[in-house]
């Protein structure tokens, strides 16, 4: 993880543009081996730095308004393998090693487990775990 | 394109949640053959429907505040091959046939043509065209 820590003290570090969207940028997580897009979430400056410091992905939860270490409940953390930035410096693409093989809180490999067919969103993704067993049943 | 047109008249059509972000949802464009993530942009209800009607991707330009048919200047349109929706119905993943083999206005295949290495954003993407020749030189 020395590689990522180094970024934080480098004055030439690329500046991510957090201004366009109230301090947030969208972040795409992609499986570093298969290329499957796993999820999209948001980062602010704090979680961007936490991600660099720790080498595991931290998002900003818009609904809970707090730091969200991906996998904090399920154990399915995302190890950073590669970070890419887009032409406008306002979107990140992070290639990850998805621990537990499932990124979605509904138990699927990818949050994009539904394809649109004939007007419906049809599930065709692979389910890896039962959310009730991982997070506890909803009462 | 009959397949996509059909979506517009289907009452059971999946409802995309445009409310979380002032009428917009983030949209990831991914090359349908290679799996390379090409770009991220935004859609509103209007450009979502335009995309379904026409079978080519239309975004909403946040900077220009107008409908943006991707490739309208360069000819590099994105033909829709598959549409996926995430678990919260607030993000789209569209697999596309990228005409012209380049999605980025800077001439690269992908907008994510820079990887973060030792604190710098280092270009390692493939450049397909010279933007000055496609869009005209900036005066």
List the helices and strands and how they pair.
2 copies of one chain form a homodimer.
Chain A: H1 2-9, E1 25-31, E2 37-43, H2 45-54, E3 58-61, E4 66-69, E5 78-85, E6 92-98, E7 114-117, E8 120-123, H3 131-135
Parallel strand pairs in A: 1-6
Antiparallel strand pairs in A: 1-2, 3-4, 5-6, 7-8
Structure description:
Two copies of one chain form a homodimer. The mean pLDDT of chain A is 90. Chain A has three helices and eight strands. In chain A, the strands form three sheets. The first copy, chain A, has a four-stranded mixed beta sheet with strand order 2-1-6-5. The radius of gyration of chain A is 16 Å and the shape is globular. In chain A, helix 1 (2-9) crosses helix 2. The first copy, chain A, has helices at residues 2-9, 45-54, 131-135, and strands at residues 25-31, 37-43, 58-61, 66-69, 78-85, 92-98, 114-117, 120-123. With 139 residues, chain A is an alpha+beta fold. The A-B interface holds A 3, 6-7, 10, 12-14, 20-21, 26, 28, 30, 34-37, 39-40, 62, 82-89, 91, 93, 104-106, 108, 111-116, 118-121 and B 3, 6-7, 10, 12-14, 20-21, 26, 28, 30, 34-37, 39-40, 62, 82-89, 91, 93, 104-106, 108, 111-116, 118-121.
Short précis:
The structure is a homodimer. By secondary structure, the first copy, chain A, is an alpha+beta fold.
| Rg from alpha-carbon coordinates of chain A | 16 Å
Number of helices of chain A: 3
Let me know the average pLDDT of chain A. Answer: 90
Shape of chain A: globular
């Amino acid at each position: 993880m020395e590689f990522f820590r180094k970024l934080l003290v480098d004055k030439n570090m690329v500046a991510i543009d957090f201004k366009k969207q109230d301090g947030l940028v969208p972040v795409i997580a992609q499986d570093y081996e298969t290329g499957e897009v796993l999820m999209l979430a948001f980062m602010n400056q704090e979680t961007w730095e936490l991600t660099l410091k720790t080498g595991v992905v931290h998002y900003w939860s818009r609904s809970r308004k707090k730091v969200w270490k991906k996998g904090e409940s399920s154990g399915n953390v995302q190890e950073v393998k590669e970070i890419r930035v887009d032409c406008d410096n306002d979107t990140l693409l992070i290639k990850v090693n998805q621990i537990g093989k499932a990124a979605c809180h509904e138990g699927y490999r990818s949050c994009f487990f539904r394809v649109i067919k004939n007007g419906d969103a049809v599930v065709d993704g692979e389910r890896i775990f039962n959310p009730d067993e991982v997070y506890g049943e909803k009462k």
